[in-house]
């Protein structure tokens, strides 16, 4: 039987307490000092896209608030996988962060089969920036003024409609796949690389597509595209007069995009807390809120835990849809 003296027990307890206090003190000091040098914010897509626009908007506010530059670094490629892996492999010190979207986090793990990393476990969710619904838009040559008329026309003309997307397995592609499956109409999918899909839609070479609201807002306003419905559960604040697909009789149809901050696994909790707090405070500013809504984005926010639970649900949802569609990355 091992007997421990009171002095030994006391030394162990005190030692543990001192270690905990030291850890708490170090965490507090880090929170107060972070950041003390420029922070690189990787965007896994090209400049000018929705991810890039939102990232730059937030980065500027963080620069002003935290008194250190938050510098955008665009690293596009492989559907967002290249930039995402770059951050996964980066030092977990809080000075390399990632602004990412639904594709690389929730869709690509299924679409690409076997990635050399797991975005759900190799990255730490920090804070959701915004929800950006997809909007179903048609070229004015399509004889449909609303969703009901579009469905009726598509059913009466099987195989005659072409829809575009920004690539196989993207939210744009899978939204249309979901709609066709739920409605029961036959249309031909034509995948593009990024913005080329919108160019052909505006030219009338394809008839409809789901697109992020920021990418088509100006064309809707100009009457060059006709909005049919949005893919969020609630109406978009940017297009309040456009109904949701759910309202048109298709329950649980939710297939929009979302955007948020992530950090490499192992990033100190104090850094996660500091960035989360700063972004949440920024999202409550009326000017930022108005700017986001004007861009077609609905500000989100919330805790890291909430964002982590959300990304897991999104991964589980898109895994089923990708498998049903048969989509595989080329």
TrEMBL record:
Family: Belongs to the UPF0065 (bug) family.
Cited Pfam families: TctC
Superkingdom: Bacteria
Name the UniProt record assigns to this protein: Tripartite tricarboxylate transporter substrate binding protein
Key words of the record: Signal
Keyword Translocase set for record: no
Species whose genome carries this gene: Limnohabitans radicicola
Signal peptide stretch: 1-31
Key word Signal present: yes
InterPro entries noted in UniProt: BUG, Bug_dom1
């Amino acid at each position: 039987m091992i007997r421990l003296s009171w002095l030994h027990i006391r030394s162990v307890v005190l030692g543990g307490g001192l270690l905990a206090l030291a850890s708490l003190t170090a965490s507090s000091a880090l929170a107060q000092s972070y950041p003390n040098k420029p922070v690189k914010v990787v965007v896994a897509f090209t400049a000018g896209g929705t991810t890039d626009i939102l990232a730059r908007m937030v980065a500027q506010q963080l620069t002003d608030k935290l008194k250190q530059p938050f510098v955008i670094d665009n690293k596009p490629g492989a559907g967002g996988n290249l930039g995402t892996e770059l951050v996964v492999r980066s030092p977990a010190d809080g000075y390399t962060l990632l602004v990412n979207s639904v594709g690389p986090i929730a869709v690509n793990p299924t679409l690409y089969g076997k990635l050399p990393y797991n975005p759900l476990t190799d990255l730490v969710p920090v804070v959701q920036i915004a929800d950006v619904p997809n909007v179903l838009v048609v070229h004015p040559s399509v004889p449909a003024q609303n969703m009901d008329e579009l469905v009726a026309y598509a059913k009466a003309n099987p195989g005659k409609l072409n829809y575009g997307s920004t690539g196989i397995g993207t939210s744009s592609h899978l939204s249309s796949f979901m709609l066709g499956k739920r409605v029961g109409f036959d249309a031909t999918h034509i995948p593009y690389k990024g913005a080329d899909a919108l160019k052909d839609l505006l030219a009338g070479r394809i008839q409809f597509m789901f697109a992020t609201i920021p990418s088509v807002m100006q064309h809707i306003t100009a009457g060059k595209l006709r909005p049919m419905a949005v893919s969020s559960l609630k109406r978009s604040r940017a297009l309040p007069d456009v109904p949701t697909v759910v309202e048109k009789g298709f329950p649980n149809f939710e297939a929009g995009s979302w955007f948020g901050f992530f950090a490499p696994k192992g990033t100190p909790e104090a850094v996660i807390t500091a960035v989360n707090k700063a972004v949440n405070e920024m999202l409550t500013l009326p000017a930022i809120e108005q700017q986001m809504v004007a861009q077609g984005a609905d500000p989100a926010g919330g805790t890291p835990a909430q964002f982590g639970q959300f990304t897991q649900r999104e991964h589980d949802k898109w895994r089923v849809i990708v498998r049903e569609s048969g989509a595989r990355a080329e």
